[in-house]
Amino acid sequence: MKLSDLIFRKNEPVSAHYSARTAGHLTAGVILFLLLNFAASIDASTKQTPREHPFLICTREQFPELRKRASEEPWRTMKENALERAAGGIESFDGGRGPIRLQRYLGACALAYIVDPDRKTKHAHRVYEKITNELADVVFDESQRWSGVVPSSAAAFVAIIALDIVQEDLPQPKIAACESVIDRQLGKINEKGAWELARLGAKGTWAVYNGTRTKPDDRYYKHYVTQMTEDGVSTVATTYAWARLVSSDSRPQKTGYADVLEFTGIDERYYDDPRLERFYRWLYGSSVTPARQFHAFGDFIPDRYSAGSTEPAFGNPALAYRVGRFDPLAARYMAWALEGREPPGHVLAYVLKRKDYKPKVPSSRLYPDGGAFLREPEDSPSSLAAALYNITVHPDWHMNQEINALSLSAYGARLLMNGGWLGPPTRPAKRNNTLTIDGKEHASRTGAGLEEGLISHGLDYGAGLSGDALPADASFIRSLFLVYAQDGVGGYFLTVDEVRSGKGETIHHYLHPSTETKPKVRVAKAEYDAKTELFNRAKTNRLAIFYGSSPGHVHRELSPSGSARADKKEHYRLEAVFPTERDGTSELITALYPYNRGHPKPELSRLSGDGATGVRLSHRSGPRDYVYATEGDKGYEVAHGVAFQGKVALFRREGGSVRFYFVRKGTRFRHRNIGLVSKKRVSLHLRGTKGRIHAEEETSVKFFHPEITNVQLGDESLEVKNKGEGWLKAVIPPGSNQQIRLVTEDPRQR
């Protein structure tokens, strides 16, 4: 028998190669020899063949094509910036902690190496010098908390990327010296602990580089995707969503590791993940106001992330420009949000940017698991925007008790604040634009998402469910309305809170105008007026706040504002305290009207009826808006021949006609020859003949309109069940935010 015949084959039983009798004739030395050979063969079979560098985010074969990019913008400017920065040294980067400046510089040198082949050896040695000198001196220390873990491992992450790219032009001893520094420094921090995404990103990239990570990283993926709802809304503060998952210059490893996993083929589930696609659309689109400010939720730092800041509202991180790899539409939103800004001369921006996308203005969106993010369609900093925040899963440490909280923006100014970055004290609901029962804290930082919503022609609406945020015997549904500027009058906001609470309890309704000037009392316990000058460039805007029901008390008191500066700011909070109705249900209407010299404020007044609460907005140019909130169980005759039955009715009258109308969970709305009667509850907005409808279940609806001939839902005409002069009956199928059009013989209505 040949010795080679006795070597074990992987995954086959010993009996397939030799019998017990044969083994009995083998000496102990031969058996030991065979076992050692077997172990060696197994070890050799599991080792990966060393990969040719670079391979983490690009290959050497791609260098010619990458150099060609510099003939076009924005890559031309990125190249010029990288060459200038590489030559200027770390000192050419202004501000920031040492590790942050180091990662920026290493990113510039790595890019310079690719696009400047005549001096690639010089660029390679710059990388070597900075790793062995600068990175070796960076503090990697768990006891230093964030600064000893996150920015330090960010520098290590970019050092790995840079070393991978320049390796061909470094001698082996210098490569080994760089690798020794990276390995030693990353070894000082644990894989588990606070800021785990940062740890996993740096250590994971190092494992891919040295060949010990060859399979998908499930832990990292889980940390990535659990920072958002299924439909893409961040479960961390808006600014932290940007900082972590874009990522900012102090955190590129948090998401750059995903690009490494994708490019190497080790884990290709990021770029094609529908949830991440939806998240980046939300981040670059919905979370940003028309004035390119972030909506203010969570541990928000208003003087860092606002139009009045001395810093850009978003910064300019390299990884912001690679979003097209996740979704082209998100990349177009990014191009809008960062319009006028040049990508930095950094290898991550240059290599990972897929193409130069044309800007696209975001539009209103409804997120069932995250809330309503509404905005006027015009691309103007003055356009109005509103957000109703209501996440259903994964509350983060940086989130507050802010279910059904509001963020409003108008005329280039932030209208409402929240507690902002103050650490754990930001948690209480009273520091956010929401409400409580008896002033008690929210029991949960998650709600039940949106009940329904409409994105219509001139009016957007979303209704959020409080879920477990309030005590077990209490709840509130908050409807938020954005009424667009139309008919010669300015846009504004409304909220309607349908509150259920115990008998004798009080409802505490909190609003935080962006003002450090005490709001004026226009009408006691009804109308209040606030400047919106805090953290805003626009100092002439004001916000009128009008309560449709009379509160027992309205407290105007200072509340802390999270600030990046040492001198913490304060702003004024309005706390309106309402007694509950006898049956434990209350309907509270609040009108929030932004105004300035060019957009006058209407006259605001209360309306009342049998079980109905209302507000009238009398605009100077003539139109009058009416909003009513009821228990919805019976019909109401209200203003000028209008009758309705539903939870909420909102309509505009001018010159004897109704310009538009809305009904929430209603079965009836009539004014002369327009309106509807529905067998089951629907929510509907119509302006003229066009609008949107929400039906929880199939229902027969009778529509009234002069010369009506059909009803079109989306692109499909509905079957007419019955009709007469000025009316017809059709069956509306269940569906959310369905586009509806009443077809008439009048060509002006088509």
Name some characteristics of this structure:
750 residues; alpha+beta; Glycosyltransferase; 15 helices
Care to describe what's here?
With 750 residues, this protein is α+β, with helices and mostly antiparallel strands. Among the domains are: 44 residues, no CATH class; 293 residues, Glycosyltransferase (Alpha/alpha barrel), CATH 1.50.10. The protein is 25% helix and 28% strand. The chain has 15 helices and 32 strands. It has a 15-stranded antiparallel beta sheet that branches. An eight-stranded antiparallel beta sheet has the order 7-8-9-10-17-14-13-12, with no helix packed on it. Strand 19 and strand 20 form a beta hairpin. The chain is elongated, with a radius of gyration of 31 Å. The chain starts with 19 loop residues before the first helix and ends in a 6-residue tail after the last strand. The N terminus is likely disordered.
Brief overview, please?
The chain has 750 residues and is α+β, with helices and mostly antiparallel strands. It has a 15-stranded antiparallel β-sheet that branches.
Protein topology:
Blueprint: H1 20-24, H2 28-46, H3 63-68, H4 75-88, H5 98-115, H6 120-134, H7 146-166, H8 172-186, H9 196-210, H10 218-225, H11 238-245, H12 253-264, H13 274-286, H14 328-337, H15 347-352, E1 365-367, E2 371-375, E3 385-389, E4 405-410, E5 413-414, E6 435-437, E7 450-455, E8 459-465, E9 475-483, E10 492-500, E11 506-511, E12 520-523, E13 527-531, E14 542-547, E15 553-561, E16 569-579, E17 585-595, E18 603-609, E19 612-618, E20 624-629, E21 636-637, E22 642-645, E23 648-654, E24 657-671, E25 674-687, E26 690-695, E27 699-704, E28 708-713, E29 716-717, E30 720-724, E31 727-732, E32 735-744
Antiparallel strand pairs: 1-2, 2-3, 3-4, 4-5, 6-11, 7-8, 8-9, 9-10, 10-17, 11-16, 12-13, 13-14, 14-17, 15-16, 18-19, 19-20, 20-23, 21-22, 22-24, 23-24, 24-25, 25-26, 25-27, 26-32, 27-31, 28-29, 28-32, 30-31
